[in-house]
Amino acid sequence: MRNKLIVGLQNQKLKLFSLFAGLCLQFTQSSAQDTLSLYDGAVPNYRHGQLAPLPGKLSPGLIYRVTTPSLEIYLPEKGMANGTGILICPGGSYKVLTYAGEGVAIAKAFAQKGVTAFVLKYRLPDDSLMVNKTTGPLQDAQRAIKLIRENAAKWQLDSHKVGVIGFSAGGHLASTLATHYRQPVIENRNQTSLRPDFLILVYPVISMQDSLTHADSRRNLLGSQPPADLIKLYSNELQVDANTPPTYLTHAGDDHLVDVDNSIVFYEKLRHQHVAAEMHLYPKGGHGYIFAKADWMTPLFEWMKNGKWLK
Known about the structure:
Elements: H1 2-28, E1 34-37, E2 62-63, E3 70-74, E4 85-89, E5 97-98, H2 99-112, E6 116-121, H3 136-150, E7 162-167, H4 169-179, E8 199-202, H5 215-222, H6 228-233, E9 247-252, H7 261-272, E10 277-282, H8 298-306
Parallel strand pairs: 4-6, 4-7, 7-8, 8-9, 9-10
Antiparallel strand pairs: 1-3, 2-5, 3-6
Helix pairs in contact: 1-2, 3-4
């Protein structure tokens, strides 16, 4: 019965995201100023194989497969840029990317505040496309922040003001980037810092442990029967240390898809490591509450102002 309930909630989530993504598309198509491929040559960890079939019915605003990972760049209006950059990781259970609603729309909101926004089109874990599907998304996130930092002057950025925001499973990817930066899974001869300067997590998947995880996200990333050491490695609440970036968390208490305890446990780990952290919990809203709560970014922008990432 519980599995049926979870599947039903996941389907409702995708339908909700698809509905709002379609609305977002009316305002966000062809809005990016530039698109940058993450890799000049061969994509690392890539293998040629027979691709799994896509769903018969594709929903607008969702991306179901990524073979060429990229950054879609949204610049503030001339004279408005404040030197801050943000990498955006859309969610989707590591199965799809909720690209319009949790990517493009978010980028436009940041650009209006003077923040240069980069929407990450990262590879979804897929055994038919990757030698090791578990590291694929993190490779793309690390490569993205490396490119942003190394090209900071091009986009008029302060290389010490580059953060990351992630939603749902994209929150797991963002928190992995923020806690695994000392272990590069990409080539980094320049020793460019892969650590985000700040971290924003929105109804995030944090843990891969049975008691907390979102089962679909874990299965898609780690496989159906992951070993204990892999579960521990990608349970990001266990990877927090004193150098984890300052963090903003937000979640709804009635989220029945990704338990709010993901955010609460991560916040507690940050607090005990004396990492600056702020958390906003809403009693109702469920998973994906941002699509129904227009002012959810107001306290986030205030937090960014206090951190000197926003003027």
